[in-house]
Specification:
Layout lengths: L1 E8 L9 H23 L4 E9 H8 L4 H10 L2 E5 L6 E9 H16 L4 E9 H8 L4 H10 L2 E4 L7 E8 L1 H30 L16 E2 L4 E2 L11 E10 L2 E6 L2 H17 L2 H5 L11 E6 L4 E10 L6 E6 L5 E5 L4 E2 L12 E5 L2 E3 L3 E2 L1 H11 L7 E9 L13 E8 L6 E2 H7 L3 E3 L24
Parallel strand pairs: 17-21
Antiparallel strand pairs: 1-5, 2-4, 3-4, 5-7, 6-7, 8-19, 9-20, 10-11, 10-20, 11-17, 12-13, 12-16, 13-14, 14-15, 18-23, 20-21, 21-22
């Protein structure tokens, strides 16, 4: 981590009262001090001494509930209050009493201030992808860091930057402890991220061979209702496009630990169902529309979780399957489907159906050329990262048998694999394949380079 700045300020101390407590103390002191001044003004030994005190020290000097300043008053037999000086860094500490008492109080105030530890302030930059782990669920982890170190730790709000500023305030020793705790979390996070990257790098392209027939142009959904997603942060996150029909209907997987868990799950299923004795213990006596089954994907010979969309009247019958973690479909003989072992349902389905926000096709539907270019630019099933940002939703008719569909999110997609980021929607418009919607948000988007927490949940 790179240390950016370092500044030194006066300590605030361990006993700090709030501004409201301070104002209440001054208010209660006013009448008492006026009476005391009138009484002592008759004495030639009476003195009013004004001592400048840095504003950062006033609260700690007063203490919680006025404890510290009351003790100084008792030890010196004086009365003390404060006068604010607008536009100055110092507040006037007004000491009233005999000459000797005022001198004692002045020495006690100076001694108290000089004995306070010196606080320092350090800013460090932390990779965006580590921030969530530093903060923790509901801020639990950052509170632990503050508690264990004694320092105050805050994170800036710039979610679009590659790194985030973390500010640490405290004594030198407290800062050292806090930095150490933060560095441990960053190292742990980067280690996990490296493991995820290594696992995902082993993925093989999943696309089946291209059909020799030209696909029919697909129509853009007419039921779209574009609106902001409530509670959704204006941030981008890394995704794979795992399957597609056209720019109005494709499926994403979010890059992260869940994607790695999915790879492990697929390997476990493949190892298990490849053994004939295991398949024989999971033979299905009857297959119906909407069933969740284990099925092989013929283009890579691996086993996956799938939903039965429909059954044919062929002999032997075939099932149209929807692979719930990828979004693609295939026809598989019914007698090659097997019961899905219960523990293979431990992971939520990872395919998230989406549509490309802001654009409509030129004409009534997407052309073959537009579909081909979209597939090329989004690296469908090639496991190359894209950056995505949610930008509305649409409602589609229910297509799956046993589960109601959620509103389908619209996303902006950016190809980040080249020297320059490519806005996929803008590219479709530039090549004459699409037009921007009338109500589309055409403001330029800056790509965030890290994964953010998002509230999109796949169906389960």
């Amino acid at each position: 981590m790179k240390i950016i700045t370092r500044s030194v300020t006066l300590a605030l101390g361990l006993s700090v009262c709030g501004i409201s407590g301070y104002l209440l103390y001054l208010l209660l002191k006013k009448d008492e001090d006026d009476d005391y001044s009138d009484t002592l003004s008759r004495s030639s030994k009476f003195k009013i001494l004004e001592v400048p005190v840095h504003k950062d020290m006033v609260k700690v000097l007063i203490g919680r509930g006025g404890k510290n300043i009351k003790l100084i008053q008792e030890q010196s037999n004086t009365r003390i209050n404060f006068k604010d000086r607008e536009g100055h860094d110092e507040t006037i500490c007004v000491i009233r009493g005999t000459i000797e008492a005022c001198n004692i109080a002045e020495n006690l105030v100076a001694e108290f201030i000089n004995n306070q530890p010196v606080l320092e302030c350090e800013d460090v930059f932390v990779p965006q992808g580590c921030i969530a782990r530093i903060i923790g669920r509901d801020g639990e982890r950052i509170r632990q860091i503050c508690c264990r170190s004694g320092a105050k730790v805050t994170v800036d709000d710039n979610r679009a930057a590659a790194t985030r500023r973390v500010t640490i305030k405290g004594t030198k020793e407290q800062i050292v402890v806090a930095k150490s705790l933060i560095e441990e979390i960053v190292e742990e996070s980067q280690k996990i991220q490296g493991q995820i990257e290594a696992s995902l790098a082993k993925r093989e392209p999943r696309l089946p061979p291209r059909s020799s027939e030209s696909p029919k142009p697909a129509e853009s959904p007419k039921v779209e209702r574009i609106s902001p997603v409530p509670g959704q942060p204006d941030a981008q996150f890394e995704v794979y496009v795992s399957a597609m029909v056209d720019p109005s209907r494709f499926w994403l997987q979010i890059v992260g630990p869940k994607a790695t868990e999915l790879d492990v799950l697929v390997e476990e299923m493949t190892e298990y169902y490849r053994k004939q004795e295991n398949r024989e213990s999971h033979i299905l006596n009857k297959v119906t529309k909407g069933d969740l089954v284990a099925a092989v994907f013929q283009y890579d010979s691996k086993w996956y979780r799938a939903e039965v969309l429909s059954l044919s009247d062929d002999n032997p019958p075939q099932a149209e399957l929807y692979y719930v973690d990828y979004g693609d479909t295939d026809l598989v003989p019914v007698d090659e489907l097997y019961e899905l072992r219960t523990d293979f349902l431990r992971l939520h389905f990872q395919a998230i159906e989406c549509f490309l926000a802001r654009v409509d096709p030129v004409g009534e539907g997407w052309s073959v050329e537009a579909v081909d270019k979209f597939e090329e630019w989004t690296h469908v099933a090639q496991w190359k990262k894209l950056s995505a940002k949610i930008n509305g939703y649409c409602v589609r008719e229910k297509t799956r048998a046993k589960r109601e569909g959620s509103p389908v999110p619209g996303v902006d997609l950016f190809d980040v694999n080249g020297e320059k980021d490519v806005d996929i929607a803008q590219e479709l418009v530039n090549h004459g394949f699409a037009v921007f919607k009338r109500d589309a948000d055409l403001r330029p988007s800056s790509r965030a380079t890290s994964v953010s927490n998002i509230s999109v949940a796949s169906s389960s």
